[in-house]
Amino acid sequence: MDAKTADFCVESLMGLLMHARRGRALAPRIEIPAFYHGAREEELVNHIVSFAVGGIRACAKAGTGERKRRPAFRPGRADKRRRRTGR
Fold it and tell me: Around Cβ 29, how many Cβ atoms within 10 Å?
């Protein structure tokens, strides 16, 4: 992973952690009873770790070229047929 991608990963993780901390602190004040679905702190931490590790691994793969990038739009059958028939 290059340095720029690593920095983005660190910044993303920091944002995730700040949101989780701030959100749990604000939830009682703004009357959101189901904030984080009533998860215990340990459940929330486990989710954050799993989510962050998955994202970091995906960024690392993308940077090494292991994963081939697909085009943003791939025409389906209907699109191809429209081009052929003009409909």
Answer: 7
Is there a domain that residue 9 lies in?
Answer: yes
Burial of 13: CB neighbours in 10 Å, binned 0-12, 13-18, 19+: middle
Predicted TM-score (pTM) above 0.85 = no
- For every residue of 59-73, DSSP letters joined together read HHHHHHT-SPPPPS-
Whole domain around residue 11: which residue ranges? Answer: 3-64
pLDDT in tens, the chain (87 residues): 889 999 999 999 999 988 888 877 766 666 655 556 667 778 888 888 999 999 999 999 987 655 555 666 666 666 666 666 665
